[in-house]
Amino acid sequence: MDDNGNSDNIQLDKVAVEHTEKPGKPTNFICPKCSNMLWEKDYEELPYFRCSLGHIYSPKSLLVEQMTALKIAFRHELRAFKEKQPWLSR
Prior knowledge:
Elements: H1 14-18, E1 25-30, E2 37-43, E3 46-50, E4 56-57, H2 59-88
Antiparallel strand pairs: 1-2, 2-3, 3-4
């Protein structure tokens, strides 16, 4: 501990604390790859979406990725239902 009673193992990243610029406008969308919130920003007047991990999508690629994630989730749920069905009919 230092003279002020602060623990030595607690350190703040000065750059992270002072960096207040937002990565864009928050949206209601989530990243299909990591489930983090997506931020909307424009590049040369074209919108794109980016999560905090750096996954970047155009509106079209985001739609494709979301549809792919939805198909995979549906397939997993259908398989789980089929596996549970014999147990439910007993």
